[in-house]
Design brief:
The complex is a heterodimer of chains A (about 850) and B (about 170). By secondary structure, chain A is mostly helical. Chain A has helices at about 1-35, 40-105, 120-125, 135-160, 165-220, 225-230, 240-245, 250-260, 270-285, 295-335, 335-340, 345-455, 455-465, 470-500, 505-535, 545-755, 760-780, 800-810, and strands at about 790-795, 800, 830. In chain A, helix 14 runs antiparallel to helix 15. Chain B has one domain (about 5-165): Ubiquitin Conjugating Enzyme. Classes of the chains: A mainly alpha (about 850), B alpha+beta (about 170). The interface between A and B is large, with 36 and 35 residues. Chain B: InterPro entries: Ub_conjugating_enzyme, UBC, UBQ-conjugating_AS, UBQ-conjugating_enzyme/RWD.
Chain lengths: ~850, ~170
Amino acid sequence: MESRKRTHAEDADPVVTKKRAVSNGYGSPTRVNGVATEVDEPKENDELESFRKEAIFRRMKHYSREHERSQHRIEELERRRNACEAGLSAIQACWTQLIDTIRLLVKPEALSSASVDTTGLFDMSTHVDSESSPELEKALQEQMNATRELVASFVQMGSQTRAALSADDMYITCQKARTECTALRSEVQVMRARLEDAESEKENYHSRLVAAENRLERLSSRTIPQSDSRSSAPPEKHTPKEEPVANAPSPTKVKVEDVQMKDESDGQPPTAQHGEASSPTEDTMPNGTGRPSAEEMDDWREIAAMREKEIRRLEEEITALREEQLALAVDQKVPSDETLQKMPLWKAVYQEFSHATWQRSDLEEQLKKAQEEVSELRVKLAEEAEKGNAQVAKIQQEYSNVIAKRDADLVRLREQRDQQAAELSERKHKDSERVAALESEVKRLRTRMAASTGDEDLVAFLFSDESVHGKTYVDELRTRLEEAETKLSALQESLSSLNQEHPDVAQHVQSEAEAREQVAQLSKELEKYRSIYGDASSGSSSDSPGQLREKEEELQKLRLQLKQQTQAESALYTEVEKLSAAWEALDKQVKNKVFDLSALEEKLSRALADRAKIENKFYAAMRDKEAVEFERKSLVRNIEKNGKSMESVIAAEKNLLAQVKLLEGEQAESRKIVQKYGPEIHRLTDQLKDYELKLEAEKTKAAQCKTELKQILDKHYTQQAELRRREEAIRRKEKEVERLQATAQSKLRSLSSQGGAKGKEHEREEELQGEVDKLMSVLKCSTCRQNMRNAVITKCMHSFCKQCVEARISTRQRKCPACNLPFGQQDVQPLYFQ
Amino acid sequence: MSTNCRRRLIRDFKRLSTDPPSGVSGSPCPDNIMLWNAVIFGPADTPFEDGTFRLLLTFDESYPNKPPTVKFLSRMFHPNVYANGELCLDILQNRWSPTYDVAAILTSIQSLLHDPNPNSPANAEAAQLYRENMKEYVRRVKETVEESWLDPEEKERMKQEDAQAASQ
C-alpha cells in the first residue's frame, strides 16, 4: 500500500496540486452555496473523504522526505566510515613501520616474548561493524599493550647502553607531552560537548523543519481552508491565488533541508535562516488579492531593496561574528605554554608537588631532632639512674650500720642487766642462809643458856616452841599464877563458907589452917635446911661435913662453870656484835647493791628509750628507704617509658625511611611511565595532526556548504522579497478594492435613490435580514433559542424564557444556566420589553 | 413530535451548518435526531494534526437541561479518553450548562485534544507518557491519527491482510 501511495505522490507533486487548485477555484462558489442550502449528509462525507485523502497524501510526502533525508545521512555515514578506515590503515602502517624499525635496531634475542601481531588489526577493522566495536577495542588494547612492552624493552636497552640520557630532559618532555595530552583531551571533551549541542540543535531544527513542511503542505492543500473557514464570506477566492505563492517555496525548502544536513555542526545559520523562513509562511496565511499596478511597483521595489539591504547588513554581521567565533575556537585549540602554565590544573599539581617535597624535608628534620633528643634523654636517664642507685645504696648502708650498732648496744645492756640481776639474787640467797644460820645459833645458845640455868620448863618451853620468845614464857607463868590464885580463892571461899556455917568449926579450921601454915612453914624451913644440910634425920653429923665440902667444891666448880659460861656468853655477845656488824656491813652492801641496781635500771630504761628512739629513727630510715625505692621504681618506669617512646620514635624513623624509599620507587616508576608515555604522546600528536588535517578538510567542506548556503539564502531572500512585494501589493489592492467598493456603493446609492436596479436592493435586503437574525438571537432565550426572553433571575439578572427557567426549577437544577449561581423560586421575575 | 429537546437540536444543527466552527463538523442521523455523528479534525501544530476523529453524541429528552453522552468511535490515545472511547470532560459532567450547544461541545473536545489534563487521567499510560516521554507520546498519537483515516471496514480488511502476511 505504501509503495502505491508513494508513486502517486512523486508524480503528482507540482502539477496535480496546481490543476486541482485551478479547478477548485472555478468550481467552488456553487459548492459553498450548496453547503449552505443543500442537504448536508452526502456533502459532508465527500469532504471528509477528500480531507482524508489529502492527509494521507501529505503524510506520505512527509515520509518520503524523511526517507530521502535518511538516505543522505546513510551515504554520509558511509563516506565517513571509509575515511575512518583509511585513517585506521594509515595508523596501522605507521605502527608496523615503527615496530619494524625497533626490531631492526634491537637484537631479536634481546627482545622478550613481546610478539606483535600487527597484521590482524586492519582486517578486523574492515570486518567489524559498529555493533561489535568492543572487539575492535579489545584488539586495539592488545596491540597497544604488546607494542608498549616492545617499546619499553627497547627503551630499557637503550638506557642500559647510554644511561647518560638526562632524566631532567626526559621529565620536561614528558611533562610537556602530558600537558599537551590533557589539553587535547579537554579540547576533545569540549568538541564533544559542542557536537552534542549541535546535534540537539539539529534535532530541534529538524523537527521544526518537518513542522514547517507540514504546514506548507497544509497551506497548499485545498480541503483545509474549506474545513477551516467555511463560514468566512469568500474562502474560494483565496485558494487559487495562494497556490502559486505557496508552491514556489517548496523547492527552496528541499534545498534548505539539504543545506541543513550538511551544516549540522555549525548551529547559527539555520536559526537565522529558519526564523526568516518561517515568517513568510506565516505571512502567506492572510493572503491578499490582486496584483500591484505598474505605478506602485516602483514604490514596492524601493521598499524591497531597502529591506534587502538591511538583510545583507545583518548577514554580514552574522558572518563577522562567525569568523570571530572561529578565531576564538582556534585560540582555544592551540594553547601556548604560558596558557598551559596558567592552567589551574597545572598550578595545582605544581603546588601539591612543592608542598609534598617541603613536607618531606620538614619530616626528615623532625626525625633528626627527635633522634637527638632521644639519645640525650637516654644519657640523662642512665646518669640519673646511677646516681639514684648510689644514693640509695649509701643511705641503706648507713642505716644498716646504725641499726647494727644499736642492736649490739642493746644486747650488751641486756646481758649486763641479766648479770646484775643474777648477782643480786645470789647475794640475797647467801645472806638469808647466813641469817638462818645465825638464828639457829642464837636458839642453840639460848637453850644452852636455859640448860645451864637449869630451868627445865624454860628448856622445855624453848624446845616446844622455838619461835616463841621470852614474852610468851612469862605469859604462861602468869596464867599458871592466875590458876593458882583462883584455886586459892576457891579454897578461901569454901573456908569462909565453912566458917559461916560452923563458926566453931571455922575457928577450928582456921586454927588448923594456921597450924598447917605453920607446919608448911616449918616444913619448908626444914626442907630448906635439909637441902643445905642434908637429911638431918637420916644423915649423920660426920657425913655432913664431907658432904658439905663436896658441895662446896661442886659449888666452886659450878661457879667456875658459871664464870666460864659468862665468859662464853660474853664471847658469844662479841661474836653476836661482830655478826651484827657484819650484818650491818652486809646490809649496807645490799643497800649499795640496790642503789646500783636502780641506777642500772635507770640506765636500762634510758637505754630502752634510746632504743625506741633509734628504732623510730630506723623506721623513719626504712620509710625513707621505701620512698627512695619507690622513687627508684618510678625512675625505672620512666626509663622504660622513655625507652618505649624511643622505640616508637625509632619505628617512626623506620617508617619514614620506608616511605622515603617508597617515594623514591614511585619516582622511579613515574620516570618509567614518563619514558613509556613518550611514544604514546608522539602517537597522539600524530593523531592530532591527522585530526587537524581532517578538520581542515571539514572546514573546506563547511566553506563549500556555506557558499551553497549563501546561494540558497540569496535565492530565498529574493523569493521572500518577492513575497513581501506581492503581499504588500495585495494589501494595496485590498485598499483599492475597498475604495472602489465605497465609490461603487456611493454610486449605487445615488442610483437607488434615483430608483436603481432591483438586484442591488435584494442584496441589501439580505444584509438587513442577517442583522435582524442577529438581533433576534440576542432577544431569544439562550437555552432553548426559541422563545423570547420573558423571565429574569433577579439574583444574577440573567434572562431566559419562562419555560426554561421552570424546567430548571422542576428538575431540581436550581442554578442559573449562564453563570451557575444557585437561585430560588422567589428570585424569578417576569421580564417585559417595554 | 416536536418537543423542546428536538426543537433545540434542530436549531443547533442549523447553527452548526450556517456558522460552523473551524475543524469540527456534525450532523444528526437521518432517521433519529437524538443520535448525532460528528468529526473532529486534529488541530494543526499538534500531534493530532490531520487526524479525523469520529464521535457519536447521544441526546435524551432532558437536553438541554442535561448534557448528552459523547463517545469517540475512532481509537484514541489521549490522557482524558477511556479505552472504550468515553471521555472525561468537566462540561459534559458537573459543569454542564444548558447554554452550551453542539458546536460548543465539539469545540471544547477539540481544544481538549491538544491541551490534555494529565491530573485526572482516564488513560494512565497516555498520561504517564505525556508527562515523562513526550516523544513516545507523539509517536503513539500519530499512530492513532493514521488509523483515524481508515474506515472501519477498511481497517478490518487491513487487519486481515496483516494476519495473512504474518502467517506467510
